[in-house]
Design brief:
This protein is α+β, with helices and mostly antiparallel strands and 263 residues long. The protein has helices spanning 12-19, 33-38, 73-78, 80-85, 87-95, 99-104, 107-113, 120-127, 140-143, 211-219, 244-262; strands spanning 5-7, 24-27, 46-49, 58-60, 64-68, 130-133, 137-139, 158-164, 168-175, 182-191, 194-200, 208-209.
Length: 263
C-alpha cells in the first residue's frame, strides 16, 4: 500500500466537503476498496470513511422499501420487514459473500462500485428501483452504465435506495464457490414496473435486462414460458470460471429457478 490521507467525517455534509478534494475516494464497508488499494489498482490521495455519517436503516411502507446506503447486507438479509415485503431481496442479501462480508459490506457501496458480478444491481434493475444521492434521484436504467461505471458524478454519494414492492419476485444465482460472486445471477420480478428479468455476472457490460424472457413471462408467468428461448453467447463473459456459452445456458437455468422460488 502507499501513503494517503484518511478522513472519517461525522456527518454527510462534512463527507461531501471532504470528497471535493482532488483524487479523494469514498469508502463504505471497504470490502472492495481495501483490496484494490492493496493491489495499487486505485491510488486516491484521500480516503473518506463514511462509517460515521449515518444513512442506515430500512423503512417499509405499503408500496415501497427504502434502504439507507450504509445499511449492511446482513441487516437487509435479517430484516423481517424486507422478508415480508420483498422476500427475494432479503434472500439476495443473504447470498452475498460470507458472514464477515455481509456484516461490513453495504448496499450503497455495492451499487456505487457496480461490479459486473455483484448481486444488488440485478435487484435494482429488475424491481425498477431508484437511487437517491445527496444531489438527485436516479432511475435504475440511467444509473448502470457498464462495467464498474455508473451515473454518479465526482464526489456524489448514494444516500438511499428505493424499491417498489412487487407482486412476485425472486433471485437465484450460480455462485463462485470461493468468492460467492455470481457467475450468473437472475432476478425476476412482476411488479409496478412490469415483468422484468435482470441478469448479473454474465454480461461484459455488467447487469442487463433479458428482454426475450420478459416478453414471454408477460404473456404467461411460468418457467415453461422460457422453454425454447436461448440466450446468445455473444457479449457474455468467458473466463476461467465459465465460458460464454456455459453462462448463456446458466441464465436460463437460474431464471427458471427464480421463477419457481417466486411462485
Amino acid at each position: 500500500m502507499y501513503d494517503f490521507s484518511y478522513v472519517k467525517p461525522a456527518n454527510l455534509a462534512d463527507a461531501v466537503k471532504a470528497l471535493a478534494a482532488e483524487d479523494s475516494k469514498a469508502m463504505a464497508g471497504g470490502m472492495t476498496l481495501i483490496p484494490v488499494l492493496k493491489q495499487r489498482l486505485n491510488k486516491p490521495s484521500s480516503v473518506v470513511d463514511l462509517a460515521r455519517v449515518g444513512m442506515t436503516g430500512i423503512n417499509v411502507s405499503d408500496t415501497t422499501v427504502v434502504i439507507g446506503a450504509m445499511t449492511t447486507h446482513a441487516a437487509v438479509a435479517d430484516s423481517a420487514d424486507v422478508k415480508r415485503a420483498i422476500k427475494g431481496l432479503a434472500n439476495l442479501a443473504g447470498m452475498i459473500g460470507d458472514k464477515e462480508v455481509r456484516h461490513r459490506g453495504t448496499i450503497g457501496g455495492s451499487l456505487a462500485n457496480n461490479d459486473p458480478a455483484a448481486d444488488y444491481p440485478a435487484a435494482v434493475l429488475a424491481l425498477g428501483g431508484t437511487i437517491k444521492t445527496d444531489k438527485r434521484t436516479i432511475s435504475a436504467e440511467e444509473f448502470f452504465q457498464g462495467m464498474f461505471a455508473t451515473a454518479l458524478r465526482s464526489g456524489e454519494l448514494i444516500t438511499s435506495v428505493s424499491f417498489p414492492i412487487p407482486a412476485r419476485a425472486a433471485y437465484e444465482k450460480f455462485r463462485n464457490p470461493a468468492s460467492r460472486y455470481a457467475i450468473v445471477g437472475v432476478f425476476v420480478a412482476n411488479g409496478p414496473a412490469g415483468v422484468r428479468v435482470a441478469v448479473t455476472g454474465a454480461g461484459q457490460g455488467g447487469v442487463f435486462r433479458h428482454k426475450a424472457f420478459e416478453a414471454a413471462l408477460t404473456k404467461s408467468w411460468s418457467a415453461k414460458s422460457l422453454d425454447g428461448i436461448t440466450t446468445p453467447a455473444d457479449g457474455l463473459n468467458g473466463d476461467i470460471h465459465a465460458s460464454a456459452e456455459y453462462r448463456a445456458h446458466l441464465i436460463g437455468v437460474m431464471a427458471k429457478r427464480a421463477l419457481a422460488a417466486a411462485g
